[in-house]
Amino acid sequence: MAKIQTPQAVRGTQDIFGEDQERFQHVVETFERVRRLYGFKGVQMPVFEPTAVFARSLGETTDVVSKEMYSFEDRGGDSLTLRPEFTAGISRAYLTNGWQQHVPLKLSTHGPLFRYERPQKGRYRQFHQLDAEIIGVSEAAADVELLCFADQLLKELGISDGVTLQLNTLGDAESRDAWRDALVEHFQAHRADLSKDSQDRLERNPLRILDSKERQDRPIADSAPDIDAYLSTEAKEFFAQVTEGLDACGVSWTRNSRLVRGLDYYRHTAFEFVTDRLGAQGTVLAGGRYDGLIESLGGPVTPAVGWAAGIERLGMLLADAPAVPLELAILPMGDTASVKALSVASELRGSQFSAEIFGSGKFKKRMARANQVGALAAIIIGEDEMASGKVQFKNLATGEQTELDVTAVIEKMWDLRFSEDLDSFDADLTDLEQDVAQLGEGD
RNA sequence: GCGAUCGUAGCUCAGUUGGUUAGAGCGCCGGUUUGUGGUACCGGAGGUCGGGGGUUCGAGACCCCUCGGUCGCCCCA
Questions:
Q1: Which of A88, A164, A290, A404 could bridge across to A57 with cysteines, CB 3.0–4.6 Å?
Q2: Could you tell me what percent of chain A has a pLDDT over 90?
Q3: Per-residue pLDDT tens digits for A392-413
Q4: A115 pLDDT exceeds 80?
Q5: Superfamily for domain range A328-422
């Protein structure tokens, strides 16, 4: 008999489980919590769109569109594409659903994205992003709010120490075009000295020469004109408002005048939160203002800003996988106790305590299991307890064991939880007091 | 798409210039302990040496192809 070939996972896809899943989940939950603090509404978007949505918004000549999309024809003969990013789909939804009526619109979403790329650490063919967008606000306040949101997210994830916010402006359409012409002229003059890649870029995407990693390009890129000289007074004012706002929010940033976007619809603010801990995949969260995008999909001129962040990359930066311990492990002994265990479990769960029955195998083994999963307490139900109507309640941290009825167990668990909350509240308070004290010293 | 590097148990890795039945630690299962965890000791299961082809009396080691991971480039979160 021929041996069956075990199927492999598709290249660049992941089966996220165990500690990785904890990390992933923690990133998403933190995002969902922080996003509410800023009043962003959640949205769910289709995973595929008509190919034209991406082709038109990103531009036919971009790498993403020309060689990285998962495009296919469906049974009806339509060309569809698995989304390689969120913004185009959201813009499409904005137009098709008449969301203009909800402007200003603050949206957030997260989910899988697909790009046919060479996989590496922190780079997958199916990967996952968090996304936040503000549509319909042309003022710099939107850029600031989005950046504060991003900054707080990274702080709450505990990874802001290794990450810096790099900020730049691309100006308005006029500024940008003037600067672009000046750059082309500059690079044209040094064309012969540019790397082969950058000579290509000169045709397709001249701004990209600025952040080239090629050694021979650096002197030419570094001596290229900054945008500052070409900014209109409005654009200058806009950027000033962004930086003032960031300072007011306590968001630290550094100017990177070589930070650019390849796509034409980007205006004004461009930013990246960058780390040096993930090798070539150092960008952890990035975005900017894309006032020209909705227009490129045939809609009215609509201002918009947004960012996206790689969930896997954020997860990899987390110091420890946040453990979610089981609260109660229920260990029945014998058939009648097993039935009793079911009613005890549902009562505990109904009271909002996590509980799991460890019902099969040797008792000793089950106790070890309870300990291993980090259960706070074990509940033992056996012959004696069936007779008395109570259970053995064993605190697995202290080893202390008492006989209680289920109501008393619930009370005890509430006390335990309450005292933990108090402890963390006290810790927060201490931090706050220290911050206040430092502020006082600073004056 | 280009360049480099790696691929031996579930995990981390050993495996001498090609030579008998491929090893260790951790983990897993069982026992010492049939109503009580973290320790200790003893035992056990688990391997298409990524896959295919070739060289050879003999290949986990050498050659070719292929798949996958990783690092860089491109691009990007």
A1: A88
A2: 56
A3: 999 988 888 899 999 999 999 9
A4: yes
A5: Anticodon-binding domain (3.40.50.800)
pLDDT of residue A216: 85
pLDDT value of position A443: 46
Residue A135 parent element (H or E) = strand A126-135
Buried residues in A190-207 as b, exposed as e (16+ CB within 10 A):
beeebbeebeebbeebbb
First to last CA, chain A: 82
Which residues, other chains included, contact A271 with Cβ-Cβ below 8 Å and sequence gap of 6+? A147, A165, A166, A167, A168, A253, A259, A286, A287, A288, A307
Shortest CA–C1' contact from A118: which nucleotide? Answer: B1
Positions 307-366 in A, CB within 7 angstroms of strand B: 308-310, 312-313, 333, 361-365
Cβ atoms of residues A251 and A147 within 8 Å: yes
Q: Where are the domains of chain A?
A: 19-172+232-317, 328-422
DSSP secondary structure letters along A137-202: --SHHHHHHHHHHHHHHHHHTT-GGGEEEEEEE--SHHHHHHHHHHHHHHHHHTGGGS-HHHHHHH
Of all nucleotides, the one whose C1′ comes closest to residue A387's CA is B35
Is residue A123 a contact partner of residue A310, using CB atoms and an 8 Å limit? no
Report which of residues 373-432 in chain A place their beta carbon less than 7 angstroms from any atom of strand B. Answer: 378, 380, 382-385, 392, 394, 396-399, 401
Compare A27 and A429 and report the one with higher pLDDT: A27
Establish whether this prediction's ipTM goes over 0.90: no
> Once rounded to an integer, what is the mean pLDDT over residues A174-187?
90
What is the structure's pLDDT at A336? 85
Winning range, highest mean pLDDT, from A232-246, A310-324, A354-368: A232-246
> Among all strands, which nt has the closest C1' to A208 (CA)?
B75
Q: Into which CATH architecture does domain A19-172+232-317 fall? A: 2-Layer Sandwich (3.30)
Is the Cα dihedral A217, A219, A223, A228 positive or negative? positive
Nearest Cα to Cα of residue A332 among A363, A305, A353, A304: A363
Q: Is A77 helix (H, G, I), strand (E, B) or coil?
A: coil
